[in-house]
């Protein structure tokens, strides 16, 4: 990991929230289709999560890509673990794997 100044903030957000979504926009107003899909999945599952809008800061936008070594946004972390972006989450949701994964991590999900 580099000495990117955004890393401390990113690490703090990930460690401070059981479910943390780095996205474009906000859950109330997603600013890209991929972020919107992930918000819809989490909301459908009734998951409590926090989010960070990467459009508010170039340091955060670049920093999260370097931090995770993942080139795209959104990015979801559960209990400190990077889970993936939109395509991975959509596949996990459709197969039922995401609900099981969250439950296995102790994250409450809707029935």
Describe the structure.
By secondary structure, the chain is an alpha+beta fold. It has one domain: Glutaredoxin (3-Layer(aba) Sandwich). Helices cover 48% and strands 15% of the residues. The protein contains 5 helices and 4 strands. A 4-stranded mixed sheet has the order 2-1-3-4. A hairpin with a 2-residue loop joins strand 3 (75-78) and strand 4 (81-84). The model has no long low-confidence stretch (mean pLDDT 95).
Pick out its properties.
5 helices, 48% helix, alpha+beta, 111 residues, four-stranded mixed β-sheet, Glutaredoxin, single chain
For the residues shown, what is the average pLDDT? 95
Rg computed from alpha carbons, rounded to a whole number of angstroms: 13 Å
What percent of residues are in strands?
15-25%
Oligomer: single chain
Could you give the order of strands across the largest sheet? 2-1-3-4
Question: Summed up, what is this model?
Answer:
With 111 residues, the chain is of the alpha+beta class. The protein contains five helices and four strands.
Mind sketching the topology for me?
Elements: H1 6-16, E1 19-23, H2 33-45, E2 50-53, H3 58-68, E3 75-78, E4 81-84, H4 86-95, H5 97-104
Parallel strand pairs: 1-2
Antiparallel strand pairs: 1-3, 3-4
């Amino acid at each position: 990991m580099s000495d990117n100044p955004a890393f401390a903030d990113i690490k703090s957000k990930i460690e401070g929230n059981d479910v943390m979504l780095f996205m474009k926009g906000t859950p109330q107003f997603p600013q890209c289709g991929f972020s919107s899909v992930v918000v819809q999945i989490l909301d459908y599952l009734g998951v409590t999560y926090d989010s960070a809008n990467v459009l508010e800061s170039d340091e955060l936008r670049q920093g999260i890509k370097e931090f995770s070594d993942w080139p795209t946004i959104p990015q979801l972390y559960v209990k400190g673990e990077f889970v993936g972006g939109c395509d991975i989450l959509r596949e996990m949701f459709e197969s039922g794997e995401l609900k099981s994964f969250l439950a296995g991590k102790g994250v409450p999900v809707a029935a």
